[in-house]
């Protein structure tokens, strides 16, 4: 027998009262985006559940994809069979004999939403339970916490059988908390920060600063690839490339070396904020982590943050590097992050950035530049690309292409 559909149970959103339908529709869209790599799969949603119809698609990879999507509490693959008592008995026997192991207990949980069906749920439990005894004579029934709980649902169009309950990723459906701009470098930390923001339902757009020819196409591709890895948690992500060369050259030209890092970051923050404003974002998300490098002190954070009053979320701020790396490995971004392509910050970074920069000094150096004009030009030069999930086979062929 082959699974025909997967029933998806919603997570935390059930507590959200009248926003419920909005949450459900968002989750449905996200599931459709993520599963778009399987063309035959169709997704529908109602108040209680979402249904993923496999239409012949192999179950296992779809289940792997579903496990990653935020807002799903649990899901159950199920078999669709004809609404006929003898077919039901036969199917129940087939399923039970294929999963039963010596000593296991079971129960049948029948539910009838088609009230015209010849047996009610109590009769169904008894009849199908008897069918199991016929097939496996020594099997024991147990009402509380049985090893196998075989659920039978009689709906209008057909009957559905399921016995597995697979835990989902939890969290909130991406997009239900509003939009945030993720400052995405090619490093280890910012993709993890993005993942954590997605987990709480923030719809992120990835803002990446590139300084060609100082930064290579490889660095840009790396940022693209990292963004693609993040699409598996909630669907498509807008990738925003910002031309940053002019600003980096200007800073290098007009400011002392000790302040290059601070000024660079202040410009990045201003530009990200302007893009946020234009695109209806509510917050900025970045990968800053406290004390990791000389530049990530509280003084430095204060000097950089001073250019905006927009909330800046720093999901990995209190995490140790090893904790961040663990998560990066778990979400499969680590191997991309450690590819050796120079980031725009590494190239212009001084050996010793100031660990306690002063806002007043930063402002004084910026007075030598046309800050507004530089920001406006960078913002008007952005390139926006929609990044979508990718099938495994495509990933392999991409890899081969990279190697050639
Ligand atoms: P990451 O591992 O994310 O690069 P990091 O530990 O290297 O972080 P920094 O290089 O100090 O830390 O950068 C701090 C944060 O600034 C990054 O996490 C990211 O959010 C943002 N940032 C740095 N460089 C870029 C860039 N080229 N484009 C977009 N955001 C950037
Ligand atoms: Mg970095």
From TrEMBL:
ATP binds at residues 183-184, 208-209, 265, 287, 296. The keyword Translocase does not apply. CDD domains: PPase_ThiI, THUMP_ThiI. Pathway: Cofactor biosynthesis; thiamine diphosphate biosynthesis. PROSITE patterns: THUMP. The keyword RNA-binding applies. Keywords: ATP-binding, Cytoplasm, Nucleotide-binding, RNA-binding, Thiamine biosynthesis, Transferase, tRNA-binding. Its EC number is 2.8.1.4. InterPro entries: Rossmann-like_a/b/a_fold (IPR014729), ThiI_AANH (IPR020536), ThiI_fer (IPR054173), ThiI_N (IPR049961), THUMP_dom (IPR004114), THUMP_ThiI (IPR049962), tRNA_STrfase (IPR003720), tRNA_sulfurtransferase_ThiI (IPR050102). Residues 60-165 form the THUMP domain. SUPFAM superfamilies: Adenine nucleotide alpha hydrolases-like (SSF52402), THUMP domain-like (SSF143437). It comes from the Bacteria. It is found in: Cytoplasm. It catalyses: [ThiS sulfur-carrier protein]-C-terminal Gly-Gly-AMP + S-sulfanyl-L-cysteinyl-[cysteine desulfurase] + AH2 = [ThiS sulfur-carrier protein]-C-terminal-Gly-aminoethanethioate + L-cysteinyl-[cysteine desulfurase] + A + AMP + 2 H(+); [ThiI sulfur-carrier protein]-S-sulfanyl-L-cysteine + a uridine in tRNA + 2 reduced [2Fe-2S]-[ferredoxin] + ATP + H(+) = [ThiI sulfur-carrier protein]-L-cysteine + a 4-thiouridine in tRNA + 2 oxidized [2Fe-2S]-[ferredoxin] + AMP + diphosphate. Belongs to the ThiI family. Catalyzes the ATP-dependent transfer of a sulfur to tRNA to produce 4-thiouridine in position 8 of tRNAs, which functions as a near-UV photosensor. Also catalyzes the transfer of sulfur to the sulfur carrier protein ThiS, forming ThiS-thiocarboxylate. This is a step in the synthesis of thiazole, in the thiamine biosynthesis pathway. The sulfur is donated as persulfide by IscS. PANTHER family: TRNA SULFURTRANSFERASE. NCBIfam families: tRNA uracil 4-sulfurtransferase ThiI (TIGR00342). This is Probable tRNA sulfurtransferase. It comes from Streptococcus porcorum.
